[in-house]
Inverse folding.
């Protein structure tokens, strides 16, 4: 019996270690390539010391050309995540979500942010979905880039 | 008592007497050794020597058991393994809940992996720059919309 409990705990440990940071969010399916095939997207993953200047520890973004249907799916997922968000900023144009930034409840003492933008590029809608993790506040990130721009 | 304990000329009565003294713990080591040798011979047919043989055999077996290496304590080993596994598990969970520090910098361009740090950091800067502006880069359509119908809403 004791051996079975230990095996179960090991299994549980392995499972939690395999889980990604943005798991648990409604938009995680997009990052996992379950909604949009990876062959259609540009994905960027950065973590560690390269993000220390921004006081961040993890950055993951996907960028892809989206159809109206796909954009609708993302908006629905963002709406679901927005219900749990601590703070959020959204901008709509003609009822269409073009910008969204939300701070999700912290995990492991790390702040978590979801960023979405929907721009027109080469006559098509280009969607960028980003997940950020770190100690930086939203205001500190904005201030940092306001200075640079 | 004064005769040699190793005397081969003891009578059966003397051997019996020696056996009695053995049980009374009155014999010397030499006498015990002689008695042991005697009870293993064919001459020791009397039933009173059976008890001597039994006691001496038990003593020999007990001595050999004491001198043999201790049996492996599998129960203790199993407990030690279980405790070690729990410690490893605890350390693993603690490590999992520590902030990420592993350096990763990778771009997957339409399914193809590119380890181009410059490109990855450009993407980081672009996204954070958009956040810094507080909105996506406005298009003409959006700019006109904002001019005539400013529509910023909350989800």
């Amino acid at each position: 019996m004791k051996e079975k409990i230990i095996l179960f705990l090991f299994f549980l440990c392995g499972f939690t270690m395999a889980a990604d940071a943005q798991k648990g969010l409604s938009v995680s399916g997009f990052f996992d390539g379950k909604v949009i095939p990876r062959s259609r997207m540009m994905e960027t993953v950065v973590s560690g010391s390269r993000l220390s200047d921004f006081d961040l520890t993890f950055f993951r973004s996907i960028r892809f050309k989206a159809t109206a249907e796909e954009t609708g799916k993302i908006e629905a997922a963002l709406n679901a995540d927005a219900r749990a968000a601590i703070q959020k900023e959204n901008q709509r144009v003609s009822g269409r979500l073009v910008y969204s930034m939300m701070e999700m409840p912290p995990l492991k003492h790390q702040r978590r942010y979801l960023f979405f933008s929907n721009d027109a590029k080469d006559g098509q809608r280009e969607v960028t979905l980003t997940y950020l993790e770190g100690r930086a506040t939203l205001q500190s990130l904005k201030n940092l880039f306001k200075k640079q721009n | 008592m004064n005769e040699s304990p190793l005397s081969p000329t003891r009578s059966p009565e003397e051997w019996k007497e020696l056996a009695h003294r053995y049980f009374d713990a009155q014999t010397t080591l030499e006498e015990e050794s002689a008695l042991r040798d005697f009870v293993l011979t064919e001459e020791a047919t009397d039933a009173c020597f059976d008890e001597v043989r039994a006691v001496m055999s038990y003593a020999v077996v007990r001595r050999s058991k004491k001198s043999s290496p201790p049996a492996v304590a599998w129960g203790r080993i199993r407990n030690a393994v279980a405790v070690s596994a729990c410690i490893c598990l605890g350390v693993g969970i603690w490590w999992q809940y520590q902030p990420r520090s592993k350096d990763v910098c990778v771009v997957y361009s339409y399914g193809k992996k590119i380890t181009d740090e410059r490109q990855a950091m450009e993407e980081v800067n672009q996204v954070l720059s958009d956040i810094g502006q507080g909105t996506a880069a406005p298009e003409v359509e959006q700019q006109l919309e904002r001019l005539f119908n400013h529509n910023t809403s909350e989800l």
In short: Residues 11-19 of chain A have pLDDT under 50 and may be disordered. Chain A touches chain B through 64 residues (CB under 8 Å). The two ends of chain A are 62 Å apart (CA to CA).
